[in-house]
Specification:
Number of domains of chain A: 1
Radius of gyration of chain B: 22 Å
Number of helices of chain B: 15
Largest sheet of chain A: 2 strands, antiparallel
CATH topology of the largest domain in chain B: Rossmann fold
Distance between the termini of chain A: 15 Å
CATH superfamily of the largest domain in chain B: Response regulator
CATH class of the largest domain in chain B: Alpha Beta
CATH topology of chain A: ABC transporter involved in vitamin B12 uptake, BtuC
Strand order of the largest sheet of chain B: 6-5-7-8-9-10-11
Low-confidence stretches of chain B: 17-26
Oligomer: heterodimer
CATH class of chain A: Mainly Alpha
Number of domains of chain B: 2
Helix content of chain A: over 70%
CATH architecture of the largest domain in chain B: 3-Layer(aba) Sandwich
Chain lengths: 358, 444
Amino acid sequence: MLYREAGQFKTRYAADMAIFPIRQDRIGILVILAVAFVVIPYFGNSFLLQAVMIPFLIFSLAAIGLNLLTGYTGLLSLGTGAFMGVGAYACYKLATIFPGVHILVWVVASGFVAAAVGVVFGLPSLRIKGFYLAVATLAAQFFLQWCFVRIPWLVNYNVSNAIEVPTRTLFGVPVTGPNATPTTRYLIVLAIVVAMTWLASNLVHGRVGRMWMAVRDMDIAAELMGIRLLPTKLLAFAVSSFYCGVAGALMVFLWYGGAEADVFNINQSFFILFMVIIGGLGSLIGSYFGAALIFMLPILLRYVPDQFGIPIRSATVEHLSFMIVGALIIFFLIVEPNGLARLWQITKQKLRVWPFPY
Amino acid sequence: MRLKGLLLSAVLAAMAGVPVVVSKAEAQGTIYVPLFSYRTGAFSGSGIPIANGMADYLNMLNERDGGIGGVKIVVEECETGYDTKKGVECYESTKGKNPVITNPYSTGITLQLIPKAAVDKIPVLSMAYGLSASADGTNFPWVFNPPATYWDGLSMIIKYIAGKEGGLDKLKGKTIGYIFFDGGYGREPLPLLHQFAKDYGFEVKEYPVPPAEMQNQSGLWLNVRRDKPNWMVLWGWGAMNPTAVKEAAKINYPMDHFVGIWWSGNEDDARPAGQDGKGYLSLNLHSVGANYPAIQDIQKYLVDKGKSQTPKDKVGENFYNRGVMNSVIIAEAIRNAQKVTGKKVVTGEDVRRGLESLRITDARWTELGLAGFAAPITGVSCTDHNGHQSAYMQQWDGTKWVKISDWISPMKDRVRPLIEAAAKDYVQQNTGWPKRTESCDKSS
């Protein structure tokens, strides 16, 4: 009813090719941004910001990173956790070696270190495909995690083998360290995530993205069309690792405030991979949906019994939330094997012609 | 189809609804103590008895005495699954309810909470785990890790080994194998171990167990068989402990030369090896068993009435008593805080002062109904947040733990400089670390 494009005439190719061709979509995205930038920081309490929204945004960013590789280029990777770790450790090293440079510069710069490492581990992708590539990236996961634990230089010879985040300020307001308020952290994470999503959106809708998708759909055909496979695949690895690296640095510096190597274990990789699969392969909005379902839903479930005053023990709630989330994952995959993003697309399609479907 | 659609929209609506969690208004005149515990996940084997012990002692005080100093304690468990993510989430969700103390019960979570403690004014109690450097009260006014640090534990083990060999000088030429959890917890003792090796002339063989391989140690133990170390020291947690004891038994390693830290000494760690585990040693901070009036009271007020999650036969087991000891420290800190401030309903700031003047003498242990339960805790002060108290060695006789040594005191003169150096290092790395502004109480 409200969501229809009747009367919106496109007179230019640019308007026709726009990412949000319908006016309602453009309004919707503005409303979402307004809510994210104004309403949530203004009305949200510290729990919502610190324990729900910041991690959600960081996981979304990591999921976008993996989605560029797995969803858009068709290269299955199990090394996401390790690439996030590379970002985090690189950021820590850079920030402690050059304390004069602003921390946010290093958060973004650490992505380049992760990209370089990603390219190295992406080299075998020309020869091996599918499950075999997954195994090769699994090697990256184990090797890098081994490095995090065994190379004391990475943690500046800290006896606890942990990285700790120093307090740094931006215009006199602390952005990292214990004195940074959740609101400041949230706004910074949000700004970075929004900017990088916009960048990713431009990448996948442009020539690079089409090259990736051509390689995904059939790499021999892509090669015959003149797409050079190795640079394309390596670029995908580099960009994907860049995103994961920034997500890892954000995770340690603006969310945890300190971390052990075990944070970047294989479970983390699977966690992100599930977000991508549930959310929808080859979809940016799907990355957000996936992160919401896999990360936010358990938190929500954990506080449902409490809100209604039902006395359930914390361990039971934990078991229940595992079961419910597991069942929901299966439910969604049966209803729509292509992920939540596809469901969203179908819903919008149906709304456009509602109430008179043809 | 309609049902499917209905379900779908319900789930999507639930997801879209931003979870605004409103903390329930706490009743006035209570003290809120959140307990972070893990009854799920790979570490639940160690986590469940501790969680039971912690909750039971505080609930027993509520039932028997009506709380502490007449103020009821609100005990709430938050499930962390030993996962740092969930631990931080637990901290954030409980922060709004004015907790007086935080019990992370995981070294990983402790590390996250240490910087936050000073900002949120909630003291962190990491009983004999966490960051060893936090024993330095001058730099870590909000963090407490009594009664002993890992470094104390290691020095006690070396002392015990030396005692068996006939003196510290007899360690020369010996080989000591160190099998450890390959993470912050297991790696922390390494510098001191290597220092000891240099000083006393023994050789160290390291056997790291990666977190993902806790239950798969056979390869490592083949190396142990090849290297034939004279002594083995275990620094394990969760599923890693029973596996190590079983593997040691499998290669016929002499069990009375195999020593675990206090986190590797639960009944369930030794029991799976059965009779083969006989002789396995472990340090302990407190006695095992239920023959204490206070623990009998737990039986009477909670377990017998079905108000506890503890199975009857598990009351008084080693890690159960570890949880009890943890809660005794909490309760005593709150009681102290009431005494120091004269207030009934204390805050986190008051409990911090209470912890700094923590004194549990032998007489006090007896008063608490736990005579001889643990070594007196008298060393905690303004500058020393640990106390470096003693522990004793226990041995598995095939069915239960038997105390086989007197209280072994740590080599405080060796440990203290390390702690101060590590604390200094920590402060240096964290530029802008706040200087201690909290004044010291006279009594501490």
